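Running low. Got one?
___
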Amino acid sequence: MTKSITANPQGQFSVEDYTVFTIMLGISTAIGVYFGFFQKKKNQTTEEYLLGGRKMKTFPIAISLIASQLSGVSIMSVPAEMYSYGAQYWIIAPTMILITMIINYIFVPVFYNNHITNCYQYLEDRFSPAVKKFVTFTYVLNIYLILPIFIFIPALAFSQVTGINIHLINGIVCGVCIFYTMLGGIKAVVWTDVVQGMIMFVSCFLVVAIGVARIGGLSEVFERASAGERLEIFDMTLDTTTRQTFWTASVGNLFLWTGYLGLSQSCVQRIVSVPSMRHARAALWIFCVGFIIIMTLNCFTGIVIFAKYFDCDPIKVGLVQKADKLLPFFVQDVVGNLKGMPGVFISCVFSAGLSTMSANLNSLAGLIYEDYIRPFKLFKHTDASANRTMKMLIFVSGVYCIAMGLIVEQFGHILQMVVTIASVTQGAVMGIFCLGMLWPWANKHGALWGSASSVIVMSWIIAGAQVAISNKELIYPPKATSVDGCYEYGFNVTANDFPTLVAPQDEAEFSIYNMSFVWYSTVGTFMVFLVGIPVSYFTGSQDMRNFRPKLISPLVHWLLPEEVRQNEFSLKAENEKLSTEPIKEWTFTANETEKYKERLGVIEQTL
C-alpha cells in the first residue's frame, strides 16, 4: 500500500485555525484603537506619537526590537537556508553578542549625548545638511524597495496552507497594519510587537518540538542531518565566492546587522524612546538574548525539516515549488491534525511581518515629514497637522506595499534578494556613521564622496552579479537531497532524473561579480573609508577649533587633540534621565549652539 508523504494536504485550514488567526489580528487592531482613542490626550504631540514621550519601558522596547528584526523573511527563509545550504548561517546568532557591544559602546553614547532622535540628524550635525539629505534619501529608497517583501512573505505562507489568493490576504493584513500604526503611533507599534513577539516564540517552539517528536527524537534528527551534511558550521574556507562560510556568516553579517540594527531609523527611534542610555543598553542586551534564542529555533527548524524529508525531497517531486515554501508545508504536515496549530504558525509568520512593517511605516512617516515636507512650509506646522500628515504618509506607504506584492511574487530566493537589496546602501550607511564617529579628521567632503562612491560601486557590483545570475554564470547549488525513499509515497523518480548542479564560478577566473552577496555590506563600508579619508585629507581635514567632541564616540576621544579634550563639555551620567518636558520639534535642534559658540570664542582667543 502506498504511503502518503503528508497526512495533511495543503488547503485543510480548519475553523479553529481561522479563529486563532483572526484573534491575532483582532488584538493588534484593539491595541491601535486603545492608543488612538482612549489615550488620545497623551498622544497629541509629535514627540508622543513618534517617541512615546521618551518614557517607554525597557522590556517592551527590547521585545519590539526582537519582533521587528526577525521579520517574516527570517521565519520563512532561514529554515529554507538551513534545508538547502546547511547550518553555516547559524553563526549569526553568537555574532549578535559582538554586534550588540558595538552598538552599545560606539553608537548609543553618541545618540544620547547629542539628544539625537532622528539618527540622520547626526550626519547634519557632524558633517553638513547635504550629507544628511543624501543618506536619508538612500535609506528611504532602500526601505521602500524592501518593505513589500517583509509583508508579502506571510501572505505566501497563508496561501500555501489555505489556497486563498495571495494578494487578497496581503491586502487585508496590510490594511490592519496600516490601521493600528496610523492610530496608535509608536506605543501601538511597540505593544503589538510585544504580543506578536510572544506568538512568534511560542509557535516556533511548538512546531520544532512536535516535529522532533514525530521524527523520533533529537538523536534521529541529528543523525539524519549529519548524514546529509547539514551540520557543518565551521567552514573556514577563505574563498569569497562561496555562498556561506564561517567568515561570511560572522564578518559579513557583522557589518550587515550592525548597520541594520544600530543605524536604521526604525530601530534608533525605539532605542532613544527609553528614558536614559542605561535603559537603552539594557534593552539591547535583552534583545541580543532573545535574538539568539529565536534565531537558533529558526535555524534548527530547517534542520528538522531536512530530517523529516531526508529520503524524499518535496521540492524535487513537485509538492513544493521552492524552498521558501517548505516551512508552511512542513507545518501543515506535522501539526495539521492538531486543530488550531496551523493557525498559530500562520499567526507567527504574520506577527513577524506586521512587526517589521509597522515599525518601518512609523519611522518612515516621521522621517519623510521632517526632511521632505516640513522644510517646504506648505502649511503651518503644528503637532496636529504633523500627526495628520504622518498618518496620511503611513496610509500611502501601506497601499504601495500592497501593490508591490505583484512584483515580489516573481522573486526567487527571498533571503538572498533581501540581503542584496539592503546591501546597495547598507554599507554606505554603516561606513559614513563609523567614519563620523571614529575618525575625527573626516570632513563633509570626505563623507559625501565616500558614501556616494560606496553606493555607486555597490550598485555596479550588484547589477553585474544579477546579470551573471540571469546568464547562469553565478549559481549557488544547494546541498544534495535524496529521492531514494520517494517510491514508498507513490513517486516514480530516481536520482538520475535530477542532474547535479555545479557552480560555474568555481571553475572560472575570479570576478568581483561572483563575490558572495553576504560580503556586499562589508565592501560597501570599507569603500566609504577608502574614499572618505583621502578626500578629507586633500580638502582640508576637520577644523578641530570648531569641533564638538560629543559627536565622536567616547571610545576614540583619545584621538582628539589635547586642547579639544581639555575644553570638552562634561558628558551626562549614563543614568541621568532626559528632560521630561516635551520637545517642540521631533528632530534634534542644537539648543547648545550658542553655548558652543561662546566657548569656542574663548578657545580661539587662547590659541
